[in-house]
Amino acid sequence: MIPPTPASPANSGADAEDGSALPAVARAALLAECTGKAPKASSWPAATGYLAQKRPVFVTFFAPDGSVRASVGSLEATQSDLVTETAASARLAAQPSSGGKTEAIVDAKELKKLTIEVAILGATERVESIIELDPDIYGVILTATKTGQRGVMLPNRPDLNTVDKQLAAIRREAGLRPDERLRIERFRVETFRE
Question: I need a surface site. Which of 30, 36, 163, 191 has the fewest CB within 10 A?
């Protein structure tokens, strides 16, 4: 069961004017999902200014060794603002992934050891050639032209420091065949990390 998002955010000030409070929102939302207890109202900043934007969000949980434990989100915003979008994406980490590639984070003890990063996605741009990609700057979306199956990878990920490695990782994780015709799109992100 997903606990409700607090109705009246209590935080204000600098954190509410940029995205620096979003990792704490993600942590509180996932902790609430793991424990079944509603998050504290103080975990949520007011959705004003920057945080009032409606944009897609990915929340990434890093293990103590720096590897990615889970990365969840969507390519289209489903909530009214960045605060509720971040909370909704974080809650997905408590659900088993489709295809069973990643185990759900369901233990509050494990969550304490993880570092959280929230990526706010910018607009996507169609790419005609892979020379327009840079894994340190751009995230990439690959879409199979026949089936519409999609894969996505955020920029600046450990061990994905070349375009070839980034594209191969997307194909592998999304189950896209090597001979499949693909539409390539890129996007920038704004990241906020604990």
Answer: 36
Distance (Å, rounded) from C-alpha 50 to C-alpha 162? 32
Query: Is-contact 12 73, C-beta < 8 A?
Result: no
CATH class for domain 14-121? alpha beta
CATH dotted code for 125-189: 3.30.1490.150
Go through the chain and tell me how many residues it has: 194
The pLDDT, as a whole number, for residue 26 is 93
Q: Where are the domains of the chain?
A: 14-121, 125-189
Mean pLDDT along residues 51-74: 92
- The structure's pTM equals 0.83
Of the candidates 80, 73, 160, which has an alpha carbon nearest to the alpha carbon of residue 119? Answer: 73
Tokens of 51: 């945080």
How far apart are alpha carbons 47 and 17 in whole angstroms? 9
Cα–Cα distance, 117 to 139 (Å, whole number): 15
Compute the mean pLDDT over every residue in the chain, rounded to the nearest whole number.
85
In 32-144, at which residue ranges do the beta strands (DSSP E only) sit?
Answer: 57-62, 68-73, 115-121, 125-127, 139-144
